[in-house]
Write a structure and sequence with these properties.
Blueprint lengths: L1 E7 L9 E7 L1 H14 L1 E6 L13 H10 L1 E3 L2 E3 L4 H26 L4 H21 L7 H7 L10 H4 L2 E6 L4 H8 L1
Antiparallel strand pairs: 1-2, 3-6, 4-5
Helix pairs in contact: 1-3, 3-4
Length: 182
């Protein structure tokens, strides 16, 4: 938005001194378009693809949920190992620290793609770093014997290697926004 100062040269006795200020709002439409583009961009983080775990036949997202929240079943249980929830505070800090740059770029007419990509990448990294801490309940001895190691969340490597982020540049429905925020 720009303002233009325009002096009106009507100096008649009845009119006195007049000044006219004109506002140019032509850039505002472009700004609204850029802000809509940012508003319609969202990032999904986790096990997005519908791949199945080779050993169990479960979808990777299902298996990750079992690991995250634990499972009680006949003949034993899997304790919760909430590495994803442990990573969430870091993911929120990443989002907050990069959001300002995203909107400043939109206001200035620059691309925000690199900042948006950075949010996704650093969120993925936060999860991987959370798993690398290995600070949850130790695996059972028979599980360690079966796997050949005590590293959690890494049976075949499928869960860790398929944790990803994806950037969508389309509008979300109201139901999708509510689900994402819960």
């Amino acid at each position: 938005m720009a303002s233009k100062w325009k002096e009106v040269n009507n100096y008649g006795r009845s009119q006195g001194f007049q000044t006219k200020v004109c506002y140019d709002f032509t850039g505002l439409k472009s700004l609204v378009t850029r802000l809509h583009k940012v508003n319609n961009t969202h990032i999904k983080v986790g096990w997005i693809s519908r791949r199945k775990h080779k050993g169990s036949g479960f979808y990777l997202g299902q298996l990750a949920r079992m690991q995250e929240y634990g499972v009680i079943k006949d003949g034993g249980n899997i304790p919760a190992r909430p590495y994803f929830r442990q990573a969430l505070p870091k993911m929120w800090r990443v989002l907050k620290s990069n959001s300002k740059s995203v909107f400043i770029n939109a206001l200035q007419g620059s691309s925000s793609d690199s900042e948006i990509n950075k949010i996704g990448y650093e969120s993925k990294l936060a999860f991987h770093n959370s798993v690398m801490k290995q600070n949850m309940k130790r695996l059972a001895e028979y599980t360690i014997d079966r796997k050949g190691h005590a590293f959690q969340w890494d049976d075949t490597g499928e869960l860790l290697h398929n944790f990803e982020y994806k950037i969508f540049k389309s509008s979300m429905t109201k139901a999708e926004r509510q689900k994402a925020s819960s």
